[in-house]
Write a structure and sequence with these properties.
- The protein is mainly beta.
- The protein has three domains: 13-180, Glucose Permease (Domain IIA), CATH 2.70.70; 189-264, SH3 Domains (SH3 type barrels, Roll), CATH 2.30.30.40; 270-349, Immunoglobulins (Immunoglobulin-like), CATH 2.60.40.10.
- It has four helices and 29 strands.
Length: 405
C-alpha cells in the first residue's frame, strides 16, 4: 500500500483553512520553494476538469488508483488543484490525460502553480477528499465557498516526506499538525543459491520492498514452487524475507511458515565408477551425495529409456545389449527428495570381438588333451619302472643249505 505524500518539493502554506475564501472548508493555498511543479502523491488519474467562462482556473480533479495510507486513515483519496496557467495547462496535456485515462505514477509531475483565474500570486489552491470521486467533484458550503466532496484536512491525508523542508511564512497553517513520513527500514538482503519456496493454498502478498512498508505488487502463486534469489540476513517487521521471481515479477515476500516452506533445490552430485566393460555390456557402480528417490540411466539425454538391469537403488548395475567395439556416452540422473535432478555422464567403449578366439579355444582344448594323455603315459611308465625295481630287489638261492655230520 502506497503512503500518500505531500505534493510539492517544499511545504509552504500561504492560505490556511481559516482564510476568507476557504471559510467552511478544509481548502488551503500553497506557494512553492524553487520548484513550481506539483507531483503525484500516489498513483492517480484525472477524473474531471473544469473551465469556467468567468473564472477559468483550470481546476483538475484526481483520484487514487487504489487505497492509500495517510496519517489518519487508509482509503481512496481524491483532490482538486487550481490556478495552472492556460499555456502550461495546454502544453502539459491534462485534457488528453483525462480522455485517455492516463495513470500518473507516484512522484510524477501532474500540475503546476500559477495565477490563472481569481488569484493574486503564483500558487496552487488545493481541496482534499476521502474516498472515490463522486458527482461533479464540487461541494458547496454555506459561506459560498466550494470544496471537494468528503472534504478532509490535508494534514490528515498526506505525509510530509523527510527530505521536504517546511518553509514558514507566519501563516496559521504553519502550526497545523503536519506529520512527517515515518523513516522506513527494510530488511537487508543476501544472495542465495539453490533455494525455492513451495507455497500452499494461502494468499501471500508480494511487495516492492522487503518490509511491511513495501507496497503490494502481486500475490504468490498458490501451490507452486517459486525460485528464491535473496533472503534477509535478519528479520524486519517481525518476519524473515525472501526475494522471488515468477511470471516476469520480481518482488519480496514475508516468510510465513503456515503458508509456505523453503526448499533446498541443490542438485545431487552423482559419482560413477565403471567396473568392467565387455563386448556387449558395461558394469558400473554409482552414488549421490544426498538422498534420492528416482534413478535413471540412458544412452540418450533426451530419451531416458535403455536396457538396464535393476535401477531401483544404489548398487552395482549393468547395461546390456550394446554393440561391440563402439563408443557410448552414458547419462546418469537421480531425483532428490526435494524433486531436483542431478546429472552426470561417462564415456565408454565396448571391447572388440577377438577373431582368433575360436581357434584359441580349440588350441587350448587340444593342449589340455595332450597334457592329460602325457600324464597317463607318465603314470604308466612310472608303474613299469617301479615293478622293475621291485624284481631287482629279489635274490634267488639255488643251493641247498646243509651241514656235515
Amino acid at each position: 500500500m502506497q503512503k500518500a505524500r505531500f505534493i510539492q518539493k517544499a511545504l509552504r502554506p500561504t492560505g490556511s483553512e481559516a482564510a476568507t475564501s476557504h471559510l467552511g472548508t478544509y481548502n488551503m493555498d500553497f506557494s512553492y520553494g524553487t520548484d513550481q511543479w506539483v507531483y503525484a502523491p500516489f498513483d492517480c488519474k484525472v477524473r474531471n476538469i473544469y473551465h469556467s467562462s468567468k473564472q477559468n482556473a483550470n481546476t483538475t480533479w484526481f483520484e487514487s488508483i487504489d487505497i492509500v495510507e495517510g496519517p489518519k486513515f487508509k482509503d481512496y483519496q481524491t483532490f482538486f488543484l487550481s490556478h495552472m496557467y492556460d499555456a502550461d495547462f495546454a502544453a502539459f496535456g491534462l485534457e488528453e490525460a483525462w480522455k485517455s485515462g492516463k495513470i500518473f505514477k507516484q512522484g510524477e509531475k501532474i500540475y503546476k502553480a500559477g495565477m490563472q483565474g481569481n488569484a493574486t500570486g503564483v500558487h496552487i489552491h488545493v481541496s482534499w477528499g476521502r474516498g472515490k470521486f463522486t458527482g461533479t467533484g464540487w461541494h458547496s458550503v454555506p459561506s459560498g465557498a466550494w470544496c471537494i466532496n468528503n472534504n478532509v484536512h490535508i494534514y490528515d491525508a498526506l505525509y510530509i516526506p523527510l527530505d521536504i523542508p517546511h518553509i514558514t511564512t507566519n501563516n496559521p497553517a504553519d502550526k497545523y499538525p503536519w506529520v512527517r513520513e515515518p523513516k522506513v527500514v527494510y530488511a537487508q538482503m543476501q544472495l542465495v543459491n539453490n533455494l525455492a519456496v513451495d507455497t500452499k493454498a494461502t494468499v501471500v502478498r508480494v511487495r516492492d520492498n522487503p518490509g511491511l512498508q513495501g507496497s503490494q505488487i502481486a500475490t504468490l502463486p498458490l501451490n507452486a514452487r517459486i525460485r528464491v534469489v535473496e533472503k534477509s540476513a535478519a528479520p524486519c517487521d517481525g518476519y524473515d524475507w525472501i526475494k522471488v521471481q515468477f511470471d516476469n515479477i520480481v518482488g519480496y515476500s514475508a516468510i510465513i511458515p503456515t503458508a509456505m516452506a523453503l526448499v533446498d533445490i541443490t542438485p545431487p552430485t552423482i559419482s560413477v565408477v565403471v567396473d568392467n566393460i565387455t563386448e556387449t555390456e558395461v558394469y558400473f557402480t554409482w552414488n549421490a551425495d544426498r538422498a534420492c528417490t528416482q534413478f535413471e540411466v540412458s544412452l540418450d539425454l533426451e530419451n531416458w529409456t535403455v536396457k538396464l538391469a535393476d535401477v531401483e537403488s544404489w548398487n552395482k548395475k549393468k547395461i546390456i545389449g550394446l554393440t561391440q567395439d563402439t563408443a557410448y556416452t552414458l547419462f546418469f540422473r537421480a531425483k532428490s527428495t526435494t524433486g531436483v535432478f542431478g546429472l552426470a555422464s561417462v564415456q565408454v567403449k565396448t571391447k572388440a570381438v577377438d577373431p582368433t578366439a575360436e581357434l584359441k579355444q580349440q588350441l587350448a582344448a587340444a593342449q589340455a588333451t595332450i597334457s592329460a594323455q602325457t600324464t597317463i603315459i607318465k603314470e604308466k611308465d612310472g608303474l613299469i619302472l617301479n615293478q622293475k625295481e621291485e624284481l631287482n630287489s629279489f635274490q634267488l638261492i639255488d643251493k641247498p643249505i646243509y651241514s656235515k655230520a
